[in-house]
Amino acid sequence: MYKKILVAVDDSELGEQVFQTALDLAQHYQARMMLIHVLSPTHESYPDPIFTTPLASGVYVGLHEEVMRAYAEQWENFEQKGLDMLRNLTQIATEKGVPTEFTQALGDAGRAICDLAKDWESDLIVLGRRGLKGLSEFFLGSVSNYVLHNAHCCVLTVQRRRD
Domain UspA, which positions (predicted)? Predict the structure, then answer.
């Protein structure tokens, strides 16, 4: 039934649940998996570019250069953390007999997931749902809602467990 499963993961507890759910499905259906992690400005670990522009007077040029170096280092660490997570999850899936690839994208998570699902010809997308409502959903957006309404294939949302 499902041969190509696209799995949207992050480094949260919900991301682990999403991965495990997708891995179980991939094993059951003998499917391939593609893992995607999107570096999005709405992520809490996204490097903060505040104070990265020099003052108009140019008085603090040295400080500006130091801030830019620090931001570049933050960005590199943020990007590397995502790649390390993807490599680790790929290794776990591969060891369980599931052919797995990964990619990391930058930008709007919903669009990136839908675009990759179409390009890779996914049969199923598995992603998490944080359960945002009201103003939180309005201001932060809902990746799962976007994907549910724009994906070309089936979508499985994994609800965040509440204690």
Answer: 1-158
* Dmax (CA) of the chain: 64
Task: Give the pair of three-digit tokens for residue 98.
Answer: 């599931």
Q: What does the pLDDT look like over 139-154, one tens digit per residue?
A: 445 899 999 999 999 9
Pairing of strands 154-159, 124-129: parallel
Residue with tokens 């995502």: 82
Name which of 102-106, 108-112, 116-120, 130-134 the model is least confident about.
130-134
> Which amino acid, 90?
T
Nearest to 36 by CA among 83, 78, 92, 99: 83
Q: Write the CATH number of the domain with boundaries 4-159.
A: 3.40.50.620
3-state helix, strand, coil in the chain (%, to 5): 50, 20, 30
Work out the angle between the directed axes of helices 61-95 and 13-29 (0-180°, nearest 10).
30
What residue type is 25 in one-letter code?
L
**C-alpha atoms less than 13 angstroms from C-alpha of 108 in its C-beta half-sphere:** 11
Residue with tokens 């199923």: 124
CB 151 within 8 A of CB 112: no
The answer to whether the beta carbons of residues 80 and 74 sit under 8 Å apart is no
Q: End-to-end distance of the chain based on CA atoms, in angstroms?
A: 34
